[in-house]
Model the fold of this input.
Amino acid sequence: SAMSRALHMAIRVGDIRGAMDALARKQVDLNSFDETGRAPLHLACGDASMLPVVEALLIGKADPNLQNAHGVTPLHRAARGGYEAIAHALLAMGADVNALNRRGESPLAWAKTDAMRGFLMASKKDADADVATKDGGDGDGDGD
Done:
């Protein structure tokens, strides 16, 4: 839609107010892909200044695990940029720290800074502990 295109464009050029205006109009598909195969969340997660837009997209129910044609998630993009605040927002809204792209790379593999690697490793440990707890045992899926 025209509104979805306006949202993509505003994010691409770093126009936070324009992106927020587009989001305020409810007829925007938050998970729509642009001509480059990226959704608004993919675009916003590649720019540290877009944290307010990332948060608004997530609150509006944009999919934090949406993959582009290469299997890249918004968390991959945040990890590559070293944007911990964005990564934290994504993880808080259910982003999968273990998501793999088509090459089998996790967001951790894309992390460029030690700080981001440490942050993702701690998040991964928490995620793996949650799996073990939900399983009722050792996390292998058999319940013991």
Summary: The domain at 2-135 is CATH 1.25.40.20 (Serine Threonine Protein Phosphatase 5, Tetratricopeptide repeat). Residues 135-144 have pLDDT under 50 and may be disordered. Helices lie at 2-12, 16-24, 40-44, 51-59, 74-81, 84-92, 107-110, 114-135.
